[in-house]
Fold:
Amino acid sequence: MPPKISGSLLSALMAPIADATKVVDAPTRKELCTAIQTIDGAYAQLYASVVCPNHTVLIRFMGSYEPVCLRDPTDFKIADILQESPSNAGMHMSDIRRKAGIEERKLGRILRLLASNHIFWEG
Structure:
């Protein structure tokens, strides 16, 4: 069971995220980088406050697959292939496979794992 947190603690943890998102359109790169670091740190604290320790251990363990799964999309230039789609609307797996020259089922499993980690997305 996740630890119980009060509404005021939750609001306090969310405040830095809300404040930092106001500068996403910041005119300078430094302001944007600072906002991203604030959002990332606040998210990590919020996550640690609401998630059960056993879930955290499982997520960390499963996280070891992510670096391995980044290799094929990098080697086969999947992001470049996806950028070629009209209006960045995405592509069907068979089209990506054909252009990349990779086995479709393997590609599907890899991209689904990466999509669940917010690296790619399924439409």
Summary: The chain is about 70% helix and 0% strand.
